[in-house]
Amino acid sequence: MKDKLTFELTRRSFLGTAIAGAAALAASPALAAAKTLNVLSHKVHQTVLGSGDGDLLKDWKGANDADVSFTTFDSNPLQDRLFREAGLTETDYGVGYIVDNRPTSEIASLFDPLKDYLDRNAIEDFGDIAPGLVEGMTVDGKLIGIPVRHATQGLFYNEALLEEAGISAPPTTLEELVEQAKKLTFTSKSGTPVTGMILASDLAVFPVMFARAFGGDFITRDFKLVPDPAALEQGVEVLRGMFEAGALPRSYATTKNDDQVTWIQQGRAAFTVLPFARSAQLNNPEQSKFPGKIKGIEFPGSSSIAGSKPMSSVVEAWGMVIPRNAKDKNLAWSFIKEVSSKRVTLGMALNGNGSVRVSSYADPALIEKNPLAKVEAKVLANARAAFPPFPEAARAQATMLEEVQLAVLGRKPVKDAVASIIERVKPMMPA
Amino acid sequence: MRTRRSARRLAVGAGKTVAVAALLIWSLFPIAFIAMSSLKPGQEIFAVPPHYIFTPTFEHYVALWTRWSAFFDGLANSTIITAGATALAVITSTCAGYVYSRNSSRFLDASVLFLIVVRLIPPIVVTLPLFPLINMLNLNDTHVVLMVLYATFFVSLGTILMRTFIDQIPRELDEAAEIDGASRLTTLRKVVVPLAAPGILAVAIFVVVFAWNEFLFAFIFTATRAKTAPLVISEMIGSIDGVDWGILFAASSVQLAPILIFVSLMNRYLVAGLTAGATKG
Amino acid sequence: MRTRSAVHLMPLLAPVHVLILSVIVLPSIYVIWLSLTQSTFGQAPTFVGLENYVHVLTDPAFHSALWNTVVLVVVAVHVELALALLLALLFASGLPFRRLLLVAVMAPYAVSEVTAVVMWRFLFDPDAGPITLMLQALGLPILDWSFEPSHAMILIALLTIWMHLPFTFIILYAARLAIPNELYEAARIDGATPLQAFRRVTLPLLGPAIAVALLFRYIFAFRMFSEVWLLTNGGPARMTEVVAVYLYQEAFSYNAFGTAAATAWIMVIVALLLAAGYVFILRKQVSANAH
């Protein structure tokens, strides 16, 4: 039996190599660089680096006689795969992309600390990279990732619908936003039923933004759980009120991020909260019924905190890491260094990437191409992640969302829901 | 008498017509909607209320072709993997099903039970230990891994179905062949397989459909060389830059078409085979 | 027929069993060990005894997930079986364009889960889905599935039936076609009504096929995942979560491999208990066929 098994396996591996070899021969054109750097990323990370004549890495590839081969996955599968690969004895991947709410101490231990690399072979004007983002990639005092992309949340509104409802200016306070959203829950001239606002219910971003609008938070950067329960209650109360008034869709509990985009594009909702970078898609004439009419501004805080505290929007950032078990780490660092250079960072920004360098936002080409760049830079200055990474962060997020959903749908009083959040999440907090 | 009978026939006919109409709507409306959506201009897809009359456009298919070449590589990989997995599952299940049909012992009964019990283990579970193992064997991102995995998760059903089908073939036929001096393998090939063809096709359909659409294993065990079409489609859905629904529906339609055609072609043989088997008794 | 010794049968049996042993059984044994440890990415497993099992079995979220799963399995699988049986008989009674209709029935089976769910979500959108609008126009109550958990369960059941009806149907239809027509003729000559013929001829002879279809549908339905994950995400507020979603969350969202492994084994045991009855029936069939 055992002999049979080994035989089966060797034959399989032989077959595997043969078939895969044939497939590789068939698939790849006859260009062969001396080295190949395997990169594990999201497709967007690859796209913003350009291709063909617009390939931002053309010079680097030539100088290093290297090719870059991207393996791309959607966000969550990507993180899962990256951690699996980094947990093996050896991996083919030299560089991976990590999102800033994932690196706990355990996960950070899978990747090389980058300080030595920086000291030996520095990145151009490293101080120009937003310090908050660098901090987000620092775990237990060790820098494990170089920031490469960020997505900062802004408030989007449909200018045409606002005009139709007789509203001349977008809201400057949360109270105005709620009032306008309620007013915009109507049937538009075109006969489309409009809902004031649409928000996904499966992301911590939104309740956190509403809590912050009242000066509160879910979990702070120094791991304080719900520092101001009254502020979280107020935030959830606002969501509950909007749902009750029909200013959030009936399908709130099953609304996803992508629904926000299609509803705004179709004029089914007047307001939403999305990363500024989505502006292009919301106004894309091929998909949107309101191209050029979807405007982005900073998410407004409550009038009760106006002037005392700046509104802190949510930002999500991506960094580049080198797995500890990678084979050619020098090539990997050389790639990271090139991608982080001013030239490539700006090039990526022009391709729609949220730039991590402060200097990019002053560039005239970017200002012309992306009218929101200035607003985004301003919001970014005060922005921070929805919550910090810790081992049970995903569970804490899910628990919070469950309670918020119960409260918004009216199945549980807001006060009780907030109390449950505190009680249930407390045991999940890092010691 | 005659009028009553014809009235009944009419009622039965009407009942059947209604049933068939309901059946068609139930089965095909959602599918037609996908295909229709892939032909709508981008801003029409989610229009409320939906438009049923529009000028069709192939822009999404063009965009799919130019922007997502990985999808077509994925289709090629899916084809290779599906073919391999199906062949493996069908051959192994037919052999085992034959043994189980023609023999009986406590050991064999127990091993049938074992085949079923094993299937209660959720596939997701075995991925944890298999990932490092497959990397160690250097089989990651090969077609073979998925062929073997897909086949394995269908041999239980396959074996049991094949046993039920082979049960219906009179034993006298293979006994006669054996008396003529044919080996067991020859009997299986020359006598049993031709008669069990509808069963084999039924099993094949199940494996093909499963292997063509499977996501979890493909996501864990492939990277670039063996990446399958459903994996590429899932990337379109989860894109952090936003979903381009038109392209997504175009891709879904393209992915759906070959399998629909395959199932319809197989149906033809399946029905022919089944009917032939039925009349022979 | 004489029973050959097991050794002679090995060459034909071995491939199936080698596949199952190497791909499913051996890894699962490792998973038993894993279920007794605590581990995550970047952290080697440490032994914790039965702690994971206690954690899962005392988690109210697991209880509700298990309850939802059992309800869905029982309702969806039996409704599906009844529909499949009706359809198989309808087809067997003779239909025009049978081949084309067969393709239509089988079509949903070919649709990948992801695509199916995207479309169903839109069709049943509680504000503007075409089906919702249609129901409203007819004055019928709509499925308020994103607000009412019970409605969400109905929609999940409908979707799972839609996707799997072809599977059950084709097994039953194949078995129905295998019943010789002479038996029906004999029944008719004996003066049996169609209903009697169904009860005396069709049902008993379809028995084994029904058992196979039910058994595998139980197994598949018990680990139902995509329908729930993509349609409601377990919501509103985790009220439609099923065990496979619970397992997936533990493994992939929380990376708690120990609890995930324990959940898996609990699932196996519960499924085993549920399926035991059907396995028993099947086993009786096995010995009945063999004698």
Please specify the SSE layout and strand pairing:
The complex is a heterotrimer of chains A (431), B (281) and C (291).
Chain A: H1 2-27, E1 35-41, H2 43-47, H3 58-64, E2 66-72, H4 75-86, E3 93-99, H5 105-108, H6 115-120, H7 131-136, E4 138-139, E5 142-143, E6 146-158, H8 159-164, H9 174-183, E7 186-187, E8 193-198, H10 205-213, H11 229-244, H12 257-265, E9 269-275, H13 279-282, E10 294-297, E11 315-321, H14 329-339, H15 342-350, H16 364-369, H17 373-382, H18 393-408, H19 414-425
Parallel strand pairs in A: 1-2, 1-3, 8-9
Antiparallel strand pairs in A: 3-11, 4-5, 6-9, 6-10, 6-11, 7-8
Chain B: H1 2-38, H2 59-67, H3 69-102, H4 106-118, H5 123-136, H6 143-167, H7 171-179, H8 184-195, H9 197-213, H10 216-221, H11 229-238, H12 245-280
Helix pairs in contact in B: 1-12, 2-12, 3-6, 3-9, 3-11, 4-6, 6-9, 7-8, 9-12, 11-12
Chain C: H1 6-34, E1 37-40, E2 43-47, H2 51-57, H3 60-92, H4 98-110, H5 113-123, H6 130-137, H7 149-177, H8 181-189, H9 194-222, H10 226-231, H11 243-253, H12 257-290
Antiparallel strand pairs in C: 1-2
Key structural traits:
heterotrimer; A: 431 residues; alpha/beta; D-Maltodextrin-Binding Protein, domain 2; 2 domains; 9-stranded mixed β-sheet; 19 helices; 11 strands; 43% helix; disordered N terminus; B: 281 residues; mainly alpha; MetI-like fold; 79% helix; flat
CATH topology group of chain C: MetI-like fold
Alpha carbon gyration radius of chain C: 23 Å
Sheet with most strands of chain B: none
Helical fraction of chain C equals over 70%
Stretches with pLDDT under 50, minimum 5 residues of chain B = 276-281
The CATH class of chain C is Mainly Alpha
What is the number of strand segments of chain C?
2
Shape descriptor of chain C reads globular
Total count of helical runs of at least 4 residues of chain C: 12
